[in-house]
Design brief:
This protein has about 220 residues and is an all-alpha fold. About 70% of the residues lie in helices and about 0% in strands. It has ten helices and no strands. Keywords: DNA-binding, Transcription, Transcription regulation.
Amino acid sequence: MGLRESKKQETRQLISDCATRLFIEQGFEQTTITEIAAAARVAKKTVTNYFPRKEDLALDHHEAFTQGLASVVAGREPGEEPLAALRRTFRAALLEHSPVVGFTGPAFARMVADSPTLSARLRELHEQREEALAAALADAALADAAPTDATPTGATSDPAPAIAPRAAAALIAAADRLLFRRIQELTLAGYSNDRIEAALLPEADHLRALLAAALGGAPS
């Protein structure tokens, strides 16, 4: 990363940090862009250039979040089933207490829960996450159906029905959203991260077993 790009990243992070602090102290709806700009010591236009939507000042890693499940499917190990890759990745994130799966801390969780705007935006991000996953599963299904050198001459592989990746993505994303919500609920209830981890490990395994049964061992 060059010096110019590094400086831009630092400015973006500074604005986001100042905004989050003010949102937690004052509430999301009550905080203005002008106040955020003053706290970060930048122009109001600088704030809106980096963050066209006010919600993204708080949920500033939305692109990584919406593409997270899809990236796991696309980058899985050769021969690894998508569901197995998703389970492995979620388990690692749970053990790391990653914000991506819901470990945001009580102050941040309360800020989102108390804001109708942020709660609506989070639901929208979960929907985009599901759409991206459906596209990744469709790509995986096409790759699995593509003829290989071992395919007999004249033989064809029927691709999975178009609805199958969307249905699988809907089920997986619903489970993902449920686990995210559980972590947030336990955070607001005063559980430590270690206690949340201990509670979620068996719940996550149970949900993955239900998903495996529901998806019936389909290739993608």
